[in-house]
Amino acid sequence: xxxxxxxxxxxxxxLSQYKEGELPILRLYGxxxxxxxxxxxxxxxxxxxxxxxQKNIAxxxxxxxxxxxxxxxxxxxxxxxxxSFIKERSVKENYRLxxxxxxxxxxxxxxxxxxxxxxxxxxxSSRVCLAGREPYDLVVEGKKMGGNAQRYTKNVLLQHGSIxxxxxxxxxxxxxxxxxxxxxxxxxxxxxxxxSYRELSSMLIEAFRxxxxxxxxxxxLRSTERQCAxxxxxxxxxxxxxxxxxxxxx
Length: 250
Fold this sequence. Notes:
By secondary structure, the chain is an alpha+beta fold. It has 10 helices and 10 strands.
């Protein structure tokens, strides 16, 4: 399990260091309890920051968009690959394509996940991830399951997201000024699914292999990626100017 700030520093390092022609990357990771804020969010409007600090909950700003997301007992993934892979598809089409391996994963553990737009559920915007409903959010039995977000650069796309195993609602819900969505959101625990983090990781990898018909090799951060992540951690993701205000000075 990594700290929130290290997790997001690694994601950005992998994105910035990725070179055309390299193999796509699937990264799996966990979190210590934290809140992640979308790139353009304003946590001061939505969170009781004094309580966040008092309860020793980390707060980090993602490099992707979207609303505030709760972490603590979830399996997260990041995908990094060349934009040539997605060709001229729209952002919505990309979500439909890339989330297929998540749908396959949920099938493997006995859950039927669908997109909001396939179920006729009315879309609803919110600055809090689990309180909103976007067309390509995944829903299980009418409940939103985790969240996914993207970041595009000129030649590379990152998509990352979270599979909630369980959520400490009592801990997190009081931190939000508005409806958090935590009571209504889906978790694996709510559906009686009790696989370990390691077991879920293996099934997610297998779902990825099957969905995209690829072979995979295990790897670790290269020295250049690790060094970049350390610099981003020190100069960006541990800095209040980034996490609270979205300002970064390189």
